[in-house]
Design a protein that fits this description.
By secondary structure, this protein is of the alpha+beta class. It has two domains: about 70 residues, Roll (Ubiquitin-like (UB roll)); about 80 residues, Translation Initiation Factor IF3, CATH 3.30.110. The protein is about 30% helix and about 30% strand. The chain has four helices and nine strands, in the order E-E-E-H-E-E-H-E-H-E-H-E-E. The chain has a five-stranded mixed sheet with strand order 1-4-5-2-3. Strands 6-7-9-8 form a four-stranded mixed sheet, covered by helices on one side. It is rod-shaped and about 85 Å long. About 20% of the residues are buried. Monomer.
Length: about 180
């Protein structure tokens, strides 16, 4: 007869991604579901482990916080593979939207503005948000309306490809507007 030593206080806490499998299941009683999805009822974790061993499968705890905890008899390797496959699929389908920044000044020339406009339009077409900032230096603060006009003209020229997520607003010495790409349908 084999005697398993179970610590009263287990100091090793399971990591969030660790699944409770076979010997790691330390509950007194568990609700067991077999490989076909049929409920076998509540039994001790040792009896449940023996049933899983008889079927040459693993005992996996799928709901440890339930009363009593729910364990399932299944092939753990296949279960883990399917779980990783779903996570990869979710990562592939999610798109990270980054925030790019275009800086203008109240004294910007036409050609410089066109270069920055071309780059901003490319970012918007790629699906990125763009923060357009007009920085005021020194005495330029006395003529904020000039910077406001430059920002408004810039946003007007971008309007075909974007929507204004946050309208122009002064933050310190900077006039900022945030543009988001239009959703293509």
């Amino acid at each position: 007869m084999e005697v398993a030593f179970i610590r009263k206080y287990d100091r090793t806490k399971p990591k969030p991604n660790d699944d409770l499998v076979n010997g790691k299941i330390r509950f007194r009683e568990v609700l067991v579901i077999d490989q076909n999805g049929d409920q076998l009822g509540t039994m001790s974790s040792r009896d449940a482990q023996n049933k899983a061993n008889d079927a040459n499968l693993d005992l996996v705890c799928v709901a440890p916080k339930a009363k009593p905890p729910v364990c399932r008899i299944m092939d753990y390797g296949k279960y883990r593979f399917e779980k990783q496959k779903k996570e990869r699929e979710q990562r592939r389908n999610s798109k990270v939207v980054s925030l790019k920044e275009t800086q203008l000044s109240p004294t910007i020339d036409v050609h410089d503005k066109n270069v920055k406009l071309k780059r901003t339009l490319k970012w918007l077409q790629d699906g990125d948000k763009v923060k357009v900032a007009v920085r005021f230096r020194g005495r330029q603060m006395a003529h904020i309306e000039i910077g406001q006009k430059i920002l408004d003209d810039f946003v007007e020229e971008c309007s075909e490809y974007c929507v204004i997520e946050k309208p122009a607003k002064m933050e310190g010495r900077t006039l900022i507007a945030i543009l988001a790409p239009k959703k293509n349908k």
